[in-house]
Amino acid sequence: MSECAKALNQLLKGTHMGATLFEDLEVKVKDEKLKQLIDDCLKRLRKHEELLSHHVEQMQEAPSEDGGFFGAISELGAMMRQAVLDDEQDLVQECMKYMESAIKALNQFEQKQLIMEPMVQRSLYYMRDDYMIIYHSFHQYALLHAN
């Protein structure tokens, strides 16, 4: 597998893991506005999964279908943290942490400075924009609903 395909697959695994974490959080949310924000986030992450899978397939490789072994371990830890979250402020703070992790992962990917096709690069810019939009939506919610 090429270095670029490996790196994209790793990013895809993280995207799968992020989507799973948001799905788990969504069931705990009572506030309709926060549910709507998480649902929007999930739609964007699903689109990212499709884009990354497509790019990996274009490189003649098989895309990851889940977060992998380390993703499963991380999800288990996140589920344990989520178990003690019970108010909307805690939940939105967790959402913001997840998005900070996604932005960090994208930054680490870009620091590898792999040579990619222009369409792959555009998809990464698209993902970054989405991550920032999602993060700021959660941040705005947190500010408007502060105790």
TrEMBL record:
Gene3D superfamilies cross-referenced by the UniProt entry: 1.20.1260.10
Protein origin, superkingdom: Bacteria
Domain DUF2383 per the UniProt entry, residue ranges: 5-107
Database matches in InterPro entries: DUF2383 (IPR019052), Ferritin-like (IPR012347)
Pfam family, one: DUF2383
Stated name of the protein: PA2169 family four-helix-bundle protein
Species in which this protein is naturally found: Candidatus Merdibacter merdavium
Lineage of the species this protein comes from: Bacteria, Bacillati, Bacillota, Erysipelotrichia, Erysipelotrichales
